[in-house]
Amino acid sequence: MTVTLITGANKGIGFETARQLAERGHDLWIGARDRERGERAAAELGVRSVQLDVTDDDSVAAALAVIDEASGRLDLLVHNAGILETGLDGPTAVRMFDTNAVGMVRVTEAALPLLRRSSSAHVVTVSSSMGSFWAVNNPARAESQLPLALYAASKAAATMLSVQYAKVHPGITFTALEPGTTATDMTAGFGIGRPVAETAGVVVRLALEGVGGPSGTLRDENGELPW
C-alpha cells in the first residue's frame, strides 16, 4: 500500500487529490494547518490527518514524526499547500515565499528519512507555469497577462527547488507540476478555471506515472514544459 502525504489537503485541489488517491487504496495522510478542518476532511474520506503548518518548523517535525510512528515510511509526498496574494510589498513577499517555497523545504527535509525507506519515492510539487520565464514572456499564454509578481517568483523558486533536490537525491523522483488553471478559493477573484476534480485527476495521474521517470522537471498534463 502506497503511503502518501498531501499538504494543504483539507480543501480544493489537495482535498480532491486525496479523495482520488484514497479511492486507489493509498494509506493517505491529509496535512492541514487547521487541525479541526483537517480532521473533518479526513473523516469524510476515511483517511488520517495530521496538523501541519508548512511555515512552522515544529509543526512540520511533529507531523512527520506521527507519520513515521504510524506508517514507517513515505512513498508519495505532494506539496500542495500554497497561497496567492496580489500585494507587492515586503510582508506579502515574506508570506508568499515562506509558504510556497520555504514550506516545501521544511516538509521535504523532515520527510527525507521516511522517503529513503521507500523503494519508489516520489515528491510532487504543485507549482505553476506562472513561475516559467517561457510562459510569462509568451504573448500567446494567459500567464503573460497576469500581474502576479510575488506568486510567480515564489513558484519559480518552488520549481527550482524541485530541480535541485533531484540532483542531490537521485534515488527519489522529484516532479514540479503545472496543474492547470482551476476554480478554487485561491483563484475566485479571477473568475476562471476548470473544475477541481479535473485538475486533481491530472495531479494523480502524473504522481502515479512519474515514479522512476525523469526527475527534476516541470510538467503539465501534456508533458514536460520549458521554464
TrEMBL record:
Top-level taxon of the source organism: Bacteria
NADP among keywords: yes
Family to which the UniProt record says this protein belongs: Belongs to the short-chain dehydrogenases/reductases (SDR) family.
Gene3D superfamilies recorded: NAD(P)-binding Rossmann-like Domain
Keywords of the record: NADP, Oxidoreductase
The protein, known as: Short-chain dehydrogenase
PANTHER family the record matches: (+)-NEOMENTHOL DEHYDROGENASE, SHORT-CHAIN DEHYDROGENASE_REDUCTASE
Molecular-function GO terms, alphabetical: oxidoreductase activity
Source lineage: Bacteria, Bacillati, Actinomycetota, Actinomycetes, Micrococcales
Any Pfam family hit: adh_short
Key word Ligase present: no
